[in-house]
């Protein structure tokens, strides 16, 4: 085993985990909301980008932004339907309702796109870089750099701008925010749209690694939970750290032990961390 | 003398429970009106209803006028834009935001005719301690500092009438005195203030008029100087403090 190569693999995997999870981190942390259709949104975004390339004949670089845009709009629609539940912060009902959305999205996708695996190809996936023994693709580079950029910008917006203060104020106390003239409903819509758009970007960058299926999404949402909880719920920096940690662990565990048990092993790590640090890695 | 704030026939129900029962309140321009009463008398319910805000889901009836303008049906931030600003009881600031972030959440309204728009400099002159704490998060502040931030936030909104619900809860007597004296100074410069206060002595010394509430009704309303001799006040209110 080449250790440096596994570290590179781990970083690439980890940036993908973090990128797919970031929407959930913000949704839960900044708005105290959940969306259990997250995995199916990932699947849908991949298929929309794929369909745009197949049916509209646009390039990968146009298809991904289109799918990000489409998911953002879907976010507005979903949030509109759940408005009352969201304003009441009724998490149990939101869980059931979003799980339901997930199934509806999955069924519709199977109906429209069929049950066969499809190849959602990125030209960057074929452009590889060889450095001596080491090997990676330009897709890997873009995913890693894109993730770091997105997390950096997101952290700055949340912590250093008035918009970020607005989002945090609603997360902490929507009633009090109302006294300040802050429209909590608008903030919730914004955060939900971000979640949908971010998972679409994640799908655009990560999904080309393997064939896409209308039935996928479960693994993605499970790994998202691990990242969000491991990172400390709502912590942007923690999620990035947790994503990389999980990626590194998966790569090394896969290489040293067996790729077949990595999810089980990842949960073992999660449980261990939570026993030692109940608040996650970023806990104060 | 014109009244800055007039609330007429305010009735507030929580389900079947009438918490405020047909109360009239008037705050004349440039005056400080105090409101006292036992726990559960309905003070917070009333002052929140005037501001159009609540943490619960009360049913409110009655009329609220600010300088003659009807406020009924307006959400709290629309009332604040017109100059009717509330500092609610208890938690009035965001613990996860810094002092500056808390204050910057307020956008001073565009039209502040006849109202004093407090700049950040004004605020830090009024509460020098906040200047040193500006980068601290709400949860790192002392109770007194939190109240200063809550009041400052209201001042940033350029209030014509300020509604203050127990700003001194949990503060040391010296701080209470300091805070209320500061508020009195603002009133002397033109602000109208409705103050709910448990701290009887400090309140009586500073307010122009006092309302005594009992079980959702006003049972006494007098100039503060007269209230000092009112046996009902002495018993219901000062009693537990002189003890
Ligand atoms: N959110 C709510 N839901 C239901 N009932 C409420 C609610 N808030 C207050 N009440 C009831 O309304 C009545 C008046 O309460 P309120 O908080 O106005 O009293 P208060 O005079 O401010 O008391 P304190 O001095 O303790 O602050 C009480 O009987 C209380 O139980
Ligand atoms: Mg009260």
Please outline the helices and strands:
The complex is a heterodimer of chains A (284) and B (243).
Chain A: H1 3-31, H2 38-56, H3 60-87, H4 91-113, H5 123-126, E1 128-131, E2 134-137, H6 138-160, H7 162-172, H8 174-179, H9 184-206, H10 218-231, H11 236-256, H12 262-276
Antiparallel strand pairs in A: 1-2
Helix pairs in contact in A: 1-6, 1-9, 1-10, 1-11, 2-3, 2-4, 2-9, 2-10, 3-4, 3-9, 6-7, 10-11, 10-12, 11-12
Chain B: E1 3-14, E2 17-28, E3 32-37, H1 43-51, E4 59-66, E5 69-70, H2 76-81, E6 84-87, H3 99-104, H4 120-126, H5 128-132, H6 143-156, E7 161-165, H7 173-188, E8 192-196, H8 200-206, E9 209-214, E10 217-223, H9 224-227, H10 231-242
Pfam families (chain B): ABC_tran (PF00005)
GO molecular function (chain B): ATP binding; ATP hydrolysis activity; branched-chain amino acid transmembrane transporter activity
InterPro entries (chain B): AAA+_ATPase (IPR003593), ABC_transporter-like_ATP-bd (IPR003439), ABC_transporter-like_CS (IPR017871), BCAA_Transport_ATP-bd_LivF (IPR052156), P-loop_NTPase (IPR027417)
State the main characteristics.
heterodimer, A: 284 residues, 3% strand, globular, B: 243 residues, alpha/beta, Rossmann fold, six-stranded mixed beta sheet, 10 helices, binds adenosine-5'-triphosphate, binds magnesium ion
């Amino acid at each position: 085993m080449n250790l440096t190569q596994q570290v590179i693999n781990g970083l690439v995997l980890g940036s993908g985990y973090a990128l797919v999870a970031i929407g959930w981190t913000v949704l839960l942390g900044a708005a105290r909301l959940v969306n259990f259709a997250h995995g199916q949104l990932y699947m849908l975004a991949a298929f929309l980008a794929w369909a745009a390339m197949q049916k509209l004949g646009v390039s990968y670089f146009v298809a991904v932004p289109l799918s990000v845009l489409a998911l953002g709009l879907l976010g507005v629609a979903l949030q509109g339907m759940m408005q009352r539940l969201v304003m009441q912060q009724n998490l149990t009902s939101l869980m059931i309702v979003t799980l339901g959305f997930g199934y509806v999205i999955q069924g519709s996708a199977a109906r429209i796109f069929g049950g066969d695996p499809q190849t959602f190809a990125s030209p960057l996936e074929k452009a590889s870089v060889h450095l001596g023994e080491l090997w990676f693709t330009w897709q890997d580079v873009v995913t890693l750099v894109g993730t770091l950029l997105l997390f950096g910008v997101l952290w700055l917006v949340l912590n250093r701008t008035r918009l970020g203060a607005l989002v945090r104020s609603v997360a902490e106390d929507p009633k009090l925010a109302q006294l300040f003239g802050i429209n909590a409903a608008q903030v919730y819509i914004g955060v939900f749209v971000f979640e949908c758009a971010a998972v679409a970007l994640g799908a655009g960058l990560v999904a080309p690694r393997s064939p896409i299926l209308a039935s996928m999404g479960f693994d993605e949402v499970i790994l998202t939970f691990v990242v969000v909880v491991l990172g400390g719920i709502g912590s942007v920096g923690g999620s990035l750290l947790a994503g990389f940690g999980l990626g590194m662990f998966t790569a090394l565990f896969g290489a040293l032990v067996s790729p077949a048990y990595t999810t089980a092993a990842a949960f073992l790590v999660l449980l261990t961390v939570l026993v030692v640090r109940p608040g996650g890695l970023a806990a104060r | 003398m014109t009244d800055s704030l007039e609330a007429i026939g305010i009735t507030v129900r929580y389900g079947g429970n009438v918490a405020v029962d047909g109360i009239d309140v008037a705050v004349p321009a440039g005056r400080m009106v105090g409101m006292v009463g036992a726990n559960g008398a309905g003070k917070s319910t009333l002052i929140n209803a005037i501001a159009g805000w609540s943490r619960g889901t009360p049913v409110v009836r009655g009329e609220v006028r600010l300088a003659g303008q009807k406020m009924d049906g307006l959400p709290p931030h629309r009332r604040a834009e017109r100059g009717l600003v509330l500092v609610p009881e208890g938690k009035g600031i965001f613990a996860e935001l810094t002092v500056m972030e808390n204050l910057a959440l307020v956008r001073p309204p565009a039209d502040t005719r006849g109202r004093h728009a407090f700049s950040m400099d004004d605020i830090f002159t009024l509460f020098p301690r906040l200047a040193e704490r500006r980068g601290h998060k709400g949860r790192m502040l002392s109770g007194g500092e939190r109240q200063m931030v809550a009041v400052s936030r209201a001042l940033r909104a350029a209030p014509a009438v300020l509604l203050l619900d127990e700003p001194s809860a949990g503060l040391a007597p010296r701080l209470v005195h300091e805070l209320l004296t500061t508020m009195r100074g603002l009133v002397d410069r033109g602000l109208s203030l409705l103050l709910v206060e448990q701290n009887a002595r400090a309140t009586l010394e500073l307010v122009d008029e006092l309302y005594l509430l009992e079980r959702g009704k006003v049972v006494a309303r007098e100039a503060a100087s007269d209230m000092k001799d009112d046996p009902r006040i002495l018993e219901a209110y000062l009693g537990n403090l002189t003890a």
